[in-house]
Design brief:
By secondary structure, the protein is α+β, with helices and mostly antiparallel strands. It has 2 domains: about 35 residues, no CATH class; about 100 residues. Helix content is about 40%, strand content about 20%. It contains 5 helices and 6 strands. It has a 3-stranded antiparallel β-sheet, with no helix packed on it. A 3-stranded mixed β-sheet has the order 5-4-6. Strand 2 and strand 3 form a beta hairpin. Helix 3 runs antiparallel to helix 4. The longest helix is centred in the middle third of the chain and has 17 residues.
């Protein structure tokens, strides 16, 4: 693997171990040219996923984008990075096992909402406010009133 710091094409793996949830292999790498160290992750990918946006635009599924969205919703909440990683892995596996290579953004968004609703109510409302495009305080009020009812569609 090429060194991300100096571009040298001869890096070495110093340590490999499974991640906590056994969903990936974590590799510590070293560049003999510049001495830099970094980590890579190797994951099983069952199929290439494409996300289809509301306007029909298609883009490759990006687990880092999903992780960033969860991190934003969970900012300053008592949830560890390992829990977020498990949610991302779970959503990706669910998407891959749907049997479809093209997934509407609505499906991904609803999976995120399901996970956040169970994990953290504040993050759930934060994510929903962006995902559902709340425009005024009344939208928040209506949404929060319906949380207990299960009517968040």
């Amino acid at each position: 693997m090429r060194c991300p710091f100096c571009g040298n094409e001869d890096s070495q793996v110093k340590d490999s171990r499974p991640t906590e949830d056994n969903a990936a292999i974590r590799r510590r790498r070293f560049c003999p040219a510049c001495g830099a160290r970094w980590t890579t992750f190797e994951r099983v990918q069952l199929r290439e996923l494409t996300v289809v946006k509301k306007d029909g635009e298609k883009s490759p599924f990006d687990r880092d984008k999903l992780s960033r969205s969860l991190n934003i919703a969970l900012r300053k909440r008592p949830v560890g990075e390992d829990r977020i990683e498990r949610i991302v892995n779970s959503i990706q596996r669910r998407l891959e096992t749907l049997g479809e290579s093209e997934i509407p953004t609505k499906v991904v968004g609803e999976m995120v909402m399901e996970n956040l609703k169970e994990l953290d109510q504040v993050a759930f409302v934060r994510f929903a406010s962006v995902y559902r495009n709340f425009r005024e305080a009344k939208d928040f009020e209506d949404f929060v009133e319906n949380i207990g009812d299960g009517n968040n569609d």
